[in-house]
Hints:
Layout: H1 4-15, H2 20-36, H3 42-49, H4 55-75, H5 101-110, H6 114-126, H7 130-135, E1 141-142, E2 147-150, E3 159-162, H8 165-175, H9 188-197, H10 203-216, H11 221-228, H12 234-240, H13 244-257
Antiparallel strand pairs: 1-2, 2-3
Helix pairs in contact: 1-2, 2-4, 3-4, 6-8, 6-10
Amino acid sequence: MDLGLLEEFRFDWELAGKAGRTVDDYIASLRLLFAESPDPDLAAAKGWVASTSYASVRRKRAQAIRAFGRWGEGTGEAVFPWWKEVPLVVEEQRPQLTATEADYRAARRKVSTNRDRAVIELLWSCGLRRGELVRLDVEDVNLSDGLLVVRQSKTGRPRVVPLSPWARRAVRRQIAGRESGSLLGMSSNAIRLLLQRVGVPSAHAWRRGWAVEALRNGVSEASVRSAAGWSSGAMVARYTRALSGELAVSEFHQAWKN
Length: 258
């Protein structure tokens, strides 16, 4: 196998606007496969996928093979013509910890500084990842329009996120007349420790809670996807699967009130 094709695969993947982190993971997996079998056939690929006891790793390996094979088919490169025959492991879907309004209210009662209040309000209002919070600068906030710009996200593409009135108030106090610099002045670990200190779930649980709460309050899936930076509805479905029944009941009750 010509390993130079991996870089072409990366280039086309990123040119299509897909997440660079995902293709990095795929290429790392494929290099492991080629180290074991320089020119793998279907049997060798299946054996490599099955050689780990972890279902999640088996699934990621199969995804890498299928993504590379699909790319080769589309470009006319002779890579993995059998890629469709590599099965994807079905992972058991486990309930994921999700922050609730009770967690939000408890955190609001326990924090005492403008900075910590801003962290809590931004988590509940915007569903930001911890790294995105860390990278926010004062210049990224537009208080007059009630929004902020996430310039560096997981996908590498910027996005606009609305601020709730409470988040806008907390951020205004945190900025306190500053025109530049880091908005929070905190590391990722400092945010993690803050949430531990006030006894509430992790930042990612808040991101799930934000998505669920937005849908429960009538925000469209398209708007949730846009604000979260998701390219499809798959992540919305993944985050809200455990509460889908509750959401359905809530929506029907709201419809009957109208």
